[in-house]
Amino acid sequence: DGVGGSGMNGINDLYTQAVRLFSVETPIVAAVQGAAVGAGLGLALVADFRIASPEARFTANFVKLGFHPGFGLTHTLPRVIGEQRANLMFLTGRRVKPEEALAWGLVDEVVPQADLLDAAKALAAEIAENAPLAVVATRKTLRAGLAAAVRAQTDHEHGQQTILRATEDFAEGVRAVAERRPGNFKGR
């Protein structure tokens, strides 16, 4: 079930898997070639590093749907780009292009689409040439408590999503986004 599905169990299962991904010990390099929207943005933030193509876009458009952010984004996004920029993304639903994402620290490199996979593999190889026990130990220190924090945050996010999913504004937001128009929200 996604956001527009018939129940919330699918979202809770998704969050369980998100926490599992945050618990992985091996460093992760993501190659972002298109839209990283909503849970896709959350998935991109599981990675330690993000390499993007000029075609990539980053959006936390939950408020445009009349919904609450999920996938632990309310914890992970501020951690990566700072509270103020995260607030800007969350409260406006604004799209962030790769050049701005690079300046904000949301991505680590922007390369042409044709070079994206090679660039991501090159960064992964640079990490892999180091002592594996030291890499894992350092990463554990840097990410100490992250999976537990994401678990707590997804529990809170899920509760807020459950409340908002029952509102008229959510139904209008889903319609508005599907129809590519601003929502006509009533606060109900």
Explain what the structure shows.
This protein is mainly alpha-helical and 188 residues long. It has one domain: 2-enoyl-CoA Hydratase, Chain A, domain 1 (Alpha-Beta Complex). Helix content is 54%, strand content 10%. The strands form 2 sheets. A 3-stranded parallel β-sheet has the order 1-3-6, sandwiched between helices. A 3-stranded mixed β-sheet has the order 2-4-5. Helix 1 runs antiparallel to helix 8 and helix 3 packs across helix 8. The relative contact order is 0.17. The N terminus is likely disordered.
Q: Whole-number radius of gyration?
A: 17 Å
CATH architecture: Alpha-Beta Complex
- Return the domain count: 1
Structural class: mainly alpha
- Spatial order of strands in the largest sheet: 1-3-6
The biggest beta sheet reads: 3 strands, parallel
pLDDT < 50 stretches = 1-9
* N to C succession of SSEs: HEEHEEHHEHEHHHH
Tell me the fraction of residues in β-strands, as a range: 5-15%
CATH class: Alpha Beta
Global mean pLDDT = 92
Provide the CATH superfamily.
Answer: 2-enoyl-CoA Hydratase, Chain A, domain 1
Strand and helix map with partners:
Elements: H1 9-22, E1 29-32, E2 35-37, H2 39-44, E3 49-52, E4 57-59, H3 73-81, H4 83-92, E5 95-96, H5 98-104, E6 109-110, H6 116-128, H7 132-142, H8 146-165, H9 168-178
Parallel strand pairs: 1-3, 2-4, 3-6
Antiparallel strand pairs: 4-5
Helix pairs in contact: 1-8, 3-4, 3-8
